[in-house]
Amino acid sequence: MRGRPILGVISGFFFGIFLALTLFLYGIIPLESWLMVALPFIGIILGLVMAAWAPFGRSKSKSGTAPPEEPAGA
Amino acid sequence: MGLLTALTAVFIAVLAAPASAELKAGECSGSATFTDGTVIDQTTPESTVIVVPREDTVRYAGEAKRAAADADKEIGFSGGVAAKIGPVWVGITGWSGNAQPGEDSASGSYTYEVPGIVPGTGDIKVRANHKHGSADECVGVWTVRLDGGPGVVGIVAAAGTALFGVILLSAGITKGVKPS
Questions:
Q1: Is there a contact between A15 and B86 if contact means CB atoms under 8 Å apart?
Q2: What is the DSSP string of B105-154?
Q3: Are strands B55-64 and B49-52 parallel, antiparallel or unpaired?
Q4: Contact B32, B11 (CB under 8 A)
Q5: Cβ atoms B15, B25 nearer than 8 A
Q6: Vertex B117, ends B112 and B122: CA angle to 5°?
Q7: ipTM of the predicted structure?
Q8: Strands B138-146 and B49-52, how do they pair?
Q9: Choosing a second label site near A51 at 20 to 30 A (CA), which of A67, B38, B57, B84?
Q10: Domains by residue range for chain B, with CATH
């Protein structure tokens, strides 16, 4: 993985917990909703996806997609 | 703890006498009456959302029926209250003891006050059960929510969501990339 999978798993887990708590406290989902249990695990998966995808901080030279430089004076 | 105390008081009141819940099994009866006139009893539908005041004095009354074989002897009883979190019932409190013949009902009042730090909640499915000797177990299920808004806890939860959301996004920063 090009990103940070451990950071993704930990932050995704807590993101899911806080999101579930927020949705419950604001009356959006009931405590018995399956989302209360599922959101932390969905967060873990999101963290792993982010780490695998790693869309931020890619250098153009590494990806090989950088366009050729324009000739000087053009 | 304040919320648990309040909920426990209401549930015990329903099973031991007063409250509001739909009886799913057994032959118990009971009711709980809040000072605003809200009455909960064994006929209250599970779909009815009971808003529990943050402070109140609840009048309760309840009765459990004995099996014929237990009519003239001391029996044991037990019960408890659980809340449903996702698909799982999580126990909140329980009770147990012995009852002499004739000790099959209870009534009274219970005063409670939920601390201000405890937030109001969304809907909570609650189940209470009571086993009285060899009689069929009484089981009631109903839906409650604690009065009040999300408060400080809600703000902290929302802030935590935002914070860990940002950290989650940072997991997508490519490792070892240094600016050239």
A1: no
A2: EEEEEEEEE--TTSPP-S-EEEEEEEEETTSPPEEEEEEEEESS--HHHH
A3: unpaired
A4: no
A5: no
A6: 80
A7: 0.79
A8: parallel
A9: A67
A10: 2-149 (2.60.40)
pLDDT tens-digit series, residues B107-165: 999 999 999 999 999 999 999 888 999 999 998 898 999 999 999 999 999 999 999 99
Tokens of B74: 């001391």
Structure tokens at B104: 């099959």
Query: Which chain B residues are Cβ-neighbours of A21 within 8 angstroms?
Result: 157, 160
User: What are the DSSP calls for B28-67, one per residue?
Assistant: EEEEEE-TTS-EEETBS-TTSEEEE-SEEEEEEEEEEPPP
Question: How many angstroms separate the CA atoms of B91 and B46, rounded?
Answer: 19
Residues B121-138 as b or e (16 or more Cβ within 10 Å = b): bbbbbbbbbbbbbebeeb
Decide if B46 contacts B143 (C-beta within 8 A).
Answer: yes
A65 touching B (Cβ < 8 Å): no
CA dihedral B175, B177, B178, B180 (to 10 degrees): 180
Q: Residues B44-57: pLDDT tens digits?
A: 888 889 999 999 99
